[in-house]
Structures are given as structure tokens and as C-alpha cells.
Write a structure and sequence with these properties.
- The protein is of the alpha+beta class.
- The protein has two domains: about 1-50, no CATH class; about 55-295, no CATH class.
- About 30% of the residues lie in helices and about 30% in strands.
- The longest helix has 26 residues, at about 260-285.
- The relative contact order is 0.13.
């Protein structure tokens, strides 16, 4: 018998104190004080009486009005150390990935039957976040009203550019380019996206103050008033490689001012041209016709794609 075993048998008071200590540590982890939760935000518990976390809000929002979770609602917290490249599968479809190693940050299944899958990935280049992907895809046909909600960004007057195409009764598609200011910490009104960026900050991911969003939306008619939908938002950082330094000051990244700065204008023009070709690849992934062997440079190289050291 080991020394610990002998002590465990012969010292009941010490044994009791060990049991109480372990129990107290467990209670502290699942019911932390405000100071402890602030110092160690990764603890599994939440403050008694505190508002739901961003992830919980995302779960409630996805469930619909009233915040009642549906049977298929769930939030996943994958290992961010995983590096994915080439393509991934979501909702039974292939999602091509731009160049670089992409790390999964957050996943979700929402809806009464888990019909909507969501995932957020981040790309790092020399330790700095150079890209973020937000993808939503339906597992089953959803009401056409949801399709109309998801296409709203395509018609925003603040977009740098938008390309819309439609085959009546068959499909509708658009791609657009806009900016996303991240320095205000709010990132998005979508709780799922907010939760993902909060997790990245907690994990120590250096996030630029501004990124350019190239969005893609596709809806394919599935039946009367229903459709299969996929949206892919690819946030690309307009930064100098390996740093968080923007290529142009923040005031030049809005639609009215972007062409007043040559570096900003060139980045937006290059990104928009890249997105036209990338939209075709995203559509092939949606339709199931994508040959992943074609996912090679320069096709996969967005303007912020990692470069050889």
C-alpha cells in the first residue's frame, strides 16, 4: 500500500478535509463568484442570477420568438487547435475554404428539427486573424420567409458592390462586399457571431479592428413556399501580412471614401474580382458538383491569403 493509501485509511479527519476541499472546488467551478469568473472565464459555471452567456443567447435566438429551445438546438465548442484546409462538409454539402489553415470556433444546429446548421471558422497568419468564415446551411427545406430574411444584406446601400442573379422558380443568388468594424467589440447583432468573436478574444486570437466582408447567398426552390438555403460570409482582413496594421486608416474603408485611398481602393477591387470567381466555386459546393482537386492557387488566394514566410 502506498503512503497516500495508508494515510487515507488511518487519518479520518484528513480524509474528510480532502473530500470537503474537492467538493468545494467543484462548487466554485460551477457556481463561481464574480471575481473568480472574471479571472478564469473558461470555468464551466455562470454567475448565479447572471444574464445568459452569448452562446446561450444564440441558442435562444435560434429557437425563435420566446426563446424556447427547439428539439434540435445545440451549440458546439470545437477544438480551435484543429487546422482545416481545402474544404469541409456542412449540412451534407461541400464548403470550399480559401487558402490557409482554418480553425473551428463555434458550431450550432437550430430550428425545431435542427434544420439549420451554422459554423464559424478563423484563419490565422503569423499569429494574427486574417480571415473569418460564417456559414449557414439548411439540412431540410425551410419557409421562403427565412430565405427573404437571409438575403437582406444583398440590398444594403452601404455595400461596396453587389451581384444578384435569379432564375424564377428555380434559384436566387447574390454576392456582395461590405465592411465590418470590429473595434467596438459588438461585431454583430447576431448572438451566435458575437459569441464566436468573444471566444476568439478569450482564446487570445489577435483580431484586426476592421475586416471586409464578402458575402454569398444562394436559395434553391425545394417545393411550394420552401427552399434550401446557404449563406457564406467571408471576412477578410485588409492588413499588412503578419500584423494587425490596416493597409489604410479606418476612415477610408467606407463606401463613400474608399476610392480616396489607393491602397484601400485596390484591396476592395481585388477582393470583389476574386469573389466573382469564388461565388462559382461556392455554388458548385452547394450543387454537389465541386471537384475539390481544383481548389488550388490562384483560385483560393483571396487578397489576405497567407504568403510563404
Amino acid at each position: 500500500m502506498t503512503a497516500f493509501g495508508r494515510l487515507w485509511r488511518r487519518a479520518p479527519l484528513w480524509r474528510t478535509s480532502v473530500i470537503v476541499t474537492v467538493g468545494a472546488l467543484g462548487m466554485a467551478a460551477f457556481y463561481p463568484t464574480p471575481a473568480l469568473k472574471k479571472a478564469m472565464p473558461w470555468l464551466p459555471g455562470h454567475l448565479p442570477g447572471a444574464a445568459p452567456s452569448a452562446g446561450q443567447q444564440a441558442d435562444q435566438t435560434a429557437a425563435g420568438p420566446g426563446g424556447t429551445p427547439g428539439a434540435g438546438d445545440q451549440i458546439g465548442v470545437p477544438d480551435p487547435g484543429i487546422a482545416q484546409h481545402g474544404s469541409i462538409m456542412i449540412a451534407g454539402r461541400t464548403l470550399p475554404l480559401p487558402a490557409g489553415d482554418w480553425h473551428p470556433i463555434l458550431t450550432a444546429r437550430s430550428g425545431a428539427h435542427g434544420e439549420l446548421s451554422q459554423q464559424i471558422l478563423a484563419r490565422t497568419d503569423r499569429g494574427v486573424v486574417s480571415g473569418v468564415i460564417v456559414v449557414r446551411a439548411t439540412q431540410q427545406p425551410v419557409p421562403a420567409e427565412l430565405a427573404e430574411q437571409l438575403e437582406t444584406p444583398c440590398h444594403d446601400d452601404r455595400d461596396y458592390a453587389a451581384h444578384i442573379s435569379e432564375q424564377p422558380g428555380v434559384s436566387q443568388e447574390c454576392s456582395y462586399t461590405s465592411n465590418a468594424v470590429l473595434e467596438n467589440q459588438s461585431v454583430s447583432t447576431d448572438p451566435f457571431i458575437t459569441a464566436a468573436f468573444s471566444r476568439m478574444r478569450t482564446l487570445g486570437f489577435p483580431i484586426p479592428s476592421l475586416m471586409i466582408n464578402v458575402g454569398w447567398y444562394h436559395a434553391a426552390v425545394a417545393g411550394k413556399n420552401t427552399a434550401h438555403i446557404e449563406t457564406v460570409e467571408t471576412l477578410v482582413a485588409p492588413i499588412e501580412h503578419g500584423s494587425r496594421q490596416l493597409l489604410a486608416p479606418p476612415q477610408y474603408w467606407n463606401k463613400a471614401s474608399v476610392h480616396k485611398n489607393p491602397d484601400a481602393a485596390q484591396f476592395i477591387d481585388t477582393l470583389d474580382r476574386w469573389m466573382i470567381g469564388w461565388s462559382r466555386v461556392l455554388r458548385q459546393g452547394f450543387d454537389g458538383t465541386l471537384d475539390t482537386a481544383t481548389l488550388v492557387p490562384p483560385l483560393i488566394n483571396d487578397p489576405s491569403a497567407p504568403r510563404p514566410a
